[in-house]
Design a protein that fits this description.
The complex is a heterodimer of chains A (382) and B (343).
Chain A lengths: L6 H10 L3 H9 L8 H32 L2 H24 L4 H9 L37 H37 L1 H16 L2 H11 L5 H8 L4 H15 L3 H8 L4 H37 L11 H11 L10 H28 L1 H8 L3 H10 L5
Chain B lengths: L2 H26 L4 H12 L7 H12 L7 H13 L15 H36 L4 H14 L3 H13 L25 H38 L2 H8 L4 H14 L3 H21 L5 H10 L3 H29 L13
The chains are: A mainly alpha (382), B mainly alpha (343).
């Protein structure tokens, strides 16, 4: 049954949070209003889905729309989603759902995704863009390079997710606690952060990897970002230091809201841009480091689980440097590293711009008088 | 407390923490370096399994730890020897040689390349960022922002590979002057001669460039953003109204305040570079500390690996301490120790 929503209903829904019990008791306390109950229950039933739609709209649709309005985040998001799409398609393929190949064939693409193995293609050392059946060419064992690039993505995505979550959680907890609590807590936590920041990440990672030889992508992701949280923790810490002096935080404190409540409600929302940007940096850092360590053969591998593995084979086994005409074996797996990192950087740059109020108003020319002001301030400097 | 003293204390504390961390990795973890060494020694010489004394002596020689000592005893032993500059002896790469001797021969070269890269990158990034901010929304700004983002997306080792192949191996005109291998031309001795200085510079050029080209972009963009923000501040307007010379405004009012928030950023990039040295030195066959670290890992040479780790970290602690001193010069506020109350 369709119910037309009135302005009042909407106001009710927002306060009731969609919970029936609260809603009912509210009406009963109204006394004479009980007669309307049945109508209203139906209204709530409709609004529940609507409320769900609102939540989705507020937390997903709106930010995406805002992000989409900037060309940087737009391109960044496209590239990142493509990366994740490749990962999804490949894992589905590995589990036997080969609809992607079907779609390719239906569109008329001669290329098919397949597990990279020896003699996959009849021709070895096929250079890129020579055959549409193997668009990026084949290597010494006749493996299709494009399939190899696809094949590596699921493990890399697992690493990226593990690292991003690890870095964000550790840094946010340490940074906000230290910045808000001050005193000894701050001294201890920030000393820890400074030490973690001072230890050069890669050597520490290399030593740890040499000691524990693991191939679990989640564990590797955490190891590779073992001290990447320190930089984010430090910038969150300094942000919190300035935020905590704001009057609305002081108001909460005066009202007796607990530390965790203030951190969650007043401080964290302001930190979201930093956290998002650093999530992308952590992701990029893990891709960089993992590709580098596979490339130099520090991490042991078993099958193509990373673009660095392809680079390592090209560099160490197939003589990409020495033999003329084989450089493509190195350049082909390098290209996706650059493209994905380009996507992450564009995304973080755009996010920075969207959340940085000064830059945003300046670029949208908030008001006329302000724009004129800016002109006088930034007048040509000789 | 004196600020300089405090910073020095912090640096020393970090050093202590790093050596302790490496002790943990050598001794205390369930998959520690010590276990690996013992297993390796017994595999090389099965008689050692019976001759425990001999085994103990060899392990102590390599890792500065008696495998049968208690943890506290071993810790004291380890700290004492590291403080005396003893980092053990290698068994894989250059068997029997002292780790500290190998590293001492390599460290100046790493520091040379790293300082070239660091100064080159920051000079380029800060200057470009400031100019871009001043000419905001000009063609110069747009084109350079685009180039900076693309350059920042390239991993340094990818740049290194491309440089090695297309510049280092190239014979084209002056490009043959820029080599892609080793630290010095063949047969040039260390000394204050023209051959040595120019040779060292030419050989360090490509490794340093790999860092500069791929690292300057984000720093320049951050500097640009900060400068734009600072240019909007009231005190800059007041300075203009007071008729101060543009040069003074650009350097003292805008430049200085725009660099300060980049500080954390700069420290992280120094760290990234020191880490990157491990990979670049391997690619360029440049025998610095990072090169030996990878060689050690390939040969499963635990003493050399732990030694290079300690030294690389120590070098970075010193670099950051040095950076802190300059930061104190830029921002006098941090020395006053004004730190608000604790809630």
């Amino acid at each position: 049954m369709k119910v037309k929503r009135t302005e009042d209903d909407t106001a009710f829904d927002e306060t009731s949070d969609g919970r029936d019990s609260e809603y009912t008791s509210r009406l009963l306390s109204d006394g004479g209003q009980t007669a309307r109950m049945f109508d209203d229950t139906e209204v709530t039933e409709v609004t529940r889905t609507q409320q769900f739609a609102e939540v989705v709209d507020e937390s997903i649709v709106q930010p995406t729309k805002i992000a989409w309005s900037d060309w940087r985040t737009k391109i960044g998001m496209i590239i990142i989603s493509l990366f994740f799409f490749m990962g999804a398609v490949t894992s589905l393929h590995r589990h036997g759902y080969e609809w992607f190949n079907g779609a390719l064939a239906a569109v008329g693409m001669p290329w098919q995704l397949g597990e990279p193995r020896a003699q996959q293609a009849p021709e070895r050392f096929l250079r890129p863009f020579e055959s549409w059946q193997y668009p990026l060419g084949t290597d010494m064992m006749g493996r299709d390079l494009l399939s190899g690039i696809f094949w590596a993505t699921p493990q890399m995505i697992q690493m990226v997710i593990a690292a991003g979550v690890f870095v964000t959680v550790v840094a946010t907890v340490i940074g906000t606690t230290a910045g808000y609590k001050r005193g000894n807590t701050e001294t201890v936590l920030m000393t820890l952060t400074d030490i973690a920041m001072t230890i050069p990440g890669l050597p520490l990672v290399i030593v740890i990897v040499a000691l524990i030889d693991t191939t679990n992508p989640f564990l590797l992701g955490i190891i590779l970002s073992i001290n990447a949280w320190a930089g984010l923790a430090r910038s969150i810490h300094s942000q919190v230091l300035s935020l905590r002096e704001h009057s609305y935080v002081e108001a909460s404190r005066t009202m007796g809201v607990g530390t965790s409540g203030i951190l969650r409600k007043d401080i964290l929302p302001n930190l979201m841009p930093y956290i998002m940007i650093n999530f992308t940096f952590a992701a990029r850092g893990v891709i960089y480091a993992s590709v580098a360590l596979y490339f130099l053969g520090v991490l042991s591998y078993d099958g193509i689980g990373n673009w660095g593995v392809m680079m390592n084979m090209a560099y160490a086994v197939m003589g990409a440097f020495e033999v003329p005409g084989r450089m493509y074996l190195l350049l082909v797996p390098m290209a996706p590293v650059v493209i994905v990192s380009f996507g992450f950087i564009l995304f973080s740059q755009g996010t920075d711009r969207l959340f940085n109020p000064r830059v945003r108003t300046r670029h949208e020319g908030a008001t006329k008088s302000e724009a004129e002001d800016e002109d006088t301030i930034h007048g040509p400097v000789k | 407390m004196n600020w300089h003293l405090k910073r020095a204390g912090q640096a020393l504390f970090t050093l202590w923490a790093v050596v302790t961390l490496s002790f943990v990795m050598v001794r205390m973890l369930p998959w520690s370096a010590e276990d690996i060494v013992v297993a390796e020694l017994i595999q090389q010489n099965p008689n050692l399994a019976q001759n425990r004394d001999m085994l103990r002596r060899q392990v102590q020689d390599m890792l500065m730890i008696d495998p049968d000592a208690s943890i506290t005893e071993a810790y004291v032993q380890y700290m004492m020897s590291v403080m005396q500059g003893d980092l053990g002896t290698t068994y894989g790469v250059r068997s029997g040689e002292e780790v500290s001797a190998i590293i001492a021969g390599a460290l100046p070269w790493t520091i040379w390349v790293m300082s070239l890269a660091t100064f080159g990158m920051f000079a380029l990034a800060l200057a470009l960022g400031a100019i871009m901010a001043y000419r905001e929304q000009s063609a110069f700004d747009y084109s350079n922002s685009a180039v900076a983002i693309v350059a920042a997306s390239i991993p340094y080792y990818v740049a290194a590979v491309v440089f090695i192949k297309y510049i280092g191996f190239s014979d084209f005109l002056f490009l043959e002057m820029i080599p892609a291998r080793n630290r010095l031309p063949d047969g040039v001795a260390v000394g204050l001669t023209f051959e040595f200085v120019s040779g060292a510079f030419r050989h360090a050029l490509l490794p340093a460039l790999s860092f500069i080209v791929t690292g300057y972009g984000l720093t320049a963009l951050a500097m640009r953003g900060n400068s734009i923000q600072t240019l909007g501040e009231d005190y800059v307007r007041v300075a203009r109204l007071r008729g101060l010379p543009d040069r003074r405004i650009a350097l003292r009012y805008v430049g200085r305040n725009a660099v300060l928030p980049l500080y954390t950023w700069l420290i992280i990039s120094i760290g990234t570079m020191f880490g990157g040295a491990v990979i670049l030195e391997q690619l360029f066959n440049y025998h610095g500390v990072g090169y030996w670290m990878l060689e050690a890992i390939e040969a499963n040479d635990m003493p050399l690996m732990m030694g290079t780790f300690i030294v690389l970290t120590a070098a970075m602690v010193v670099a950051i301490w040095f950076g802190d001193l300059t930061y104190g010069k830029l921002d006098p506020r941090i020395k006053s120790g004004d730190e608000g109350e604790a809630y």
